[in-house]
Each structure stands twice: as structure tokens, then as C-alpha cells.
Amino acid sequence: MLGIDIVENNRIEESLKRFGERFLKRIYTEREIDYCNSYKERIPCLAARWATKEAVIKAFFQTFGVVLKFKQIEVLGKKGLPAKVEIHGKERELLKDYQIVISLAHERNYSVAVAQIVKKDTL
């Protein structure tokens, strides 16, 4: 199954200004926060992770009928390499025969992500 999301980067910036650390800690894991803070412009990084989490929530629900929480989805990045997703909690067991493949991008005003859940033997 497939999930997609797009977010205006300014929306994430406004949430951060309004709610500060409370917003970050509610949505992102410590590793995600640390990773995005390593960039000069952290807002596009945070926005791309928001979009990825939304896309994964959609794909996961279509596949398993389960709604994940934002903090259960961790988008792991390494500069210069494609990002990967880890699912935390008991819902991770549902993925034993599946893999989540993601693609995320951002530009000046928007961030977008696509998530696809596929059987491991089909890759």
C-alpha cells in the first residue's frame, strides 16, 4: 500500500515558534531532533519528517488497519544517503514479512514524502 503527504514548511516553523520544545517532543524522537538540528536550516528537515510520518500512517492503516502515533515512526537519516523508517511498539511485529520504503524531498516552501509498504520477497 501507498501513502503520500505534503506539508508547507512554514506550518512546521509556526508550530515550533508557538509550542517550542513541547511540539518537538510530541512529534519527533530524540534522534530525529538531533539529526535535524545538525543542519543549518532545520525546518525543511523537520517538515520532511512530518510528511514522512503522515505518509507512513496512511500506508500502514491501508495495509494493517492500524493507526500509528507520530512517535512510533522514526525517520532515520544519514547525510548523503536515503532515509529509512523504523516502527516502534508492538505494531512493529506486523512488519515481519513487510518493508517500508520511503522517499522524501523538500524545496523552499514545501516538503513531500511517499511511503510504500511491500512484501519483503517482492523487492
State mean pLDDT (0 to 100 scale): 95
Radius of gyration: 14 Å
Helicity range:
25-40%
The major beta sheet can be summarized as: 3 strands, antiparallel
CATH topology: Ribosomal Protein L22, Chain A
Our count of helices gives 4
Can you offer a commentary on this structure?
This protein is of the alpha+beta class and 123 residues long. The chain has a single domain, classed as 4'-phosphopantetheinyl transferase domain (Ribosomal Protein L22, Chain A, Alpha-Beta Complex). Helices cover 40% and strands 32% of the residues. It has four helices and five strands. The protein has helices at residues 9-19, 21-27, 30-37, 42-64, and strands at residues 2-8, 73-78, 81-87, 98-106, 110-119. The strands form two sheets. Strands 1-5-4 form a three-stranded antiparallel beta sheet. Strands 2-3 form a two-stranded antiparallel sheet. Strand 4 (98-106) and strand 5 form a beta hairpin. Helix 1 (9-19) crosses helix 2 (21-27) and helix 1 (9-19) packs across helix 4. The model has no long low-confidence stretch (mean pLDDT 95).
Q: What is this structure, in a nutshell?
A:
The protein is α+β, with helices and mostly antiparallel strands.
Topology at a glance:
Elements: E1 2-8, H1 9-19, H2 21-27, H3 30-37, H4 42-64, E2 73-78, E3 81-87, E4 98-106, E5 110-119
Antiparallel strand pairs: 1-5, 2-3, 4-5
